[in-house]
Amino acid sequence: KAAPAPARPQPLLPTAEASGLHQPREHERIPLGLRGKVFCNILPILNVSHYRVSTLACTALKQLPDFYHFPPFFTIQPVLATREKQLGQWRELILKYHTDLKIKTLVLHECPLWRNDAIGRELTRDEIRLVVDDFVRSGHGEWEDEDRHTRCRILWRRPEQLASDVYEWAVANGYIGSVCTVYELHSGEDVNGMSFQGADEELLRRALGILEEQGKCAMFRGETSSEDGIKFF
Which residue in 67, 197, 210, 228 is a FRET match for 5, CA 20 to 30 A apart? Predict the structure, then answer.
């Protein structure tokens, strides 16, 4: 007797047939192999200053998940359960894109994720605010300008996660009982590939503060903020 075929994974957003969402017509579908090329071609047109156009940026855009090419993804859904899944996908997308490109700040009016010219869809200004407000509430972001809400610091890792990563690195690389600087922690040769490489200095200091409270390190002042030292215990 033949084994049953494995079940297909279910999309986070329901299919158009199941949910009543708009189903893209055949001419609206973009072949998978062309999607990256389309995005890389439109990036220079966006003229964004904070999001530098680069080979790495094009690579990140080529790797965007399939749901980014589903037209209803760019309309905030009225059904609560569907909207929660949709916002979860936006959180995942924003965090991965900015983490992969090591972008520390999401600038609302410059972020290229809000518009997909390949399918002719974009979020409205109110929808962008709703998506980013949800992202901040999830703990993955913080407003840099509380009064205006135009710039959001991306927490590639939450402070407690970053603290754990830093201490594991210190143990693995023989830094227990030794000293390094804040600069070496975010830009030194020994941290290549680590989650805190290139991290926002304020966020990194917050993580170090957690380790200090746990008795795992002590911080002392250097001549400049980047030369502030950390001794691990």
Answer: 67
Average pLDDT per 10 consecutive residues for the chain, totaling 233 residues: 50 45 40 39 40 55 84 95 96 92 91 93 96 95 93 90 93 92 88 85 90 94 84 95
Structure tokens at 211: 């380790």
Rounded to 10 degrees, the C-alpha dihedral 84/90/95/100 comes to 140
Q: How far apart are CA 215 and CA 120, in angstroms?
A: 54
In the structure encoding, which two tokens stand for residue 139, read together? 């703990």
**Burial (CB count <10 Å: 0-12, 13-18, 19+), residue 207:** buried
Cα(109)–Cα(23) distance, rounded to whole angstroms?
A: 29
Phi, psi of 110 (to 5 degrees): -115, -20
Edge-to-edge strands, sheet with 141-143: 105-107, 151-154, 141-143
Termini Cα distance of the chain: 61
Alpha helical stretches, state H, 66-158? 80-100, 125-137
Nearest Cα neighbor of 67 from 104, 102, 43, 96 is: 96
Q: Are 98 and 106 in contact (CB under 8 A)?
A: yes
Q: What is d(CA 11, CA 1) in angstroms, rounded to the nearest whole number?
A: 30
Distance of alpha carbon 99 from alpha carbon 221, whole angstroms: 29
